[in-house]
């Protein structure tokens, strides 16, 4: 096995067995997938539907992402092949698509441009951007979640223009993010201006603003500014109706138990305790939410600056405002930056009040649902990371 690829462990083998598909290891082990593709790749994200499919996103030496899928569904192979052929015709060049196993379970792979769900959306977005500058503009990919979302940077269209961040996702998700951005800008919140790209309603463009996010460069004053902005959002969009008590804790438990069955009972106990806490607290207030608040969703203008922009509104929604506080606190503690929790809260309290017990319950909820992410991202020590995240959820309920 390539020394650059993590060693295959018994925990990995247990996760592969959970897929209930022969050959699942190929999409969980970078070394195995590299051997099948005939080039060195690193798996960056996986999704498992037991007995049905495994999907993996990966990057190679050229940094352009690709994907691979193992499935029992012949229709999935047929549609993926057709999407790839459509992309070839639209682009008038070769879009790699390979079938590695033509019998059930089927195994096939392709480039990001041949994504079975997003291929048409990516093709149209690229054509619209190229038409804008009358030239082919290369894409530098930042993130890929196969069949769901792609984020990339494209160079300036010409003199006087800057680089742009392009996000391509499902139409429903994109429309919600654009609508939220427009509303929040009208409220005076610190956002970059997003505009649609192409005519499919699945791509957004925004200026590549700022220096770094708070995940990679934590800075207290900027966290306080973010807290004030989110507090203002919650205050200005507060609604008279109550938000319901959450009832999705069980989905976090099942996601943990699927790939790490030895942690299933611990996750179940945490889920039950969270539900009991929410039952005692009762319904909360309601406002517009970011929905996925974390330090990597806050961009810092320059080194040492307190000026920020909030980004990635794909999961914006309406609900209990303490959910945003819990999401922020959970992410900060996983990153080892608890000081950002206090700084954010300081800014938040300048705009509105906070129910810290409810926020702690939402923090535990966020940790439970984040626990499987270490596996999905194929982190080398994902079992330990999952266990630590569950422990953080348990600690949140003690506050």
TrEMBL record:
Q: Which Pfam families match?
A: APH
Under InterPro entries, the record lists:
Aminoglycoside_PTrfase, Kinase-like_dom_sf
- Where is each Aminoglycoside phosphotransferase domain found? 222-362
Official protein name in the record: Aminoglycoside phosphotransferase domain-containing protein
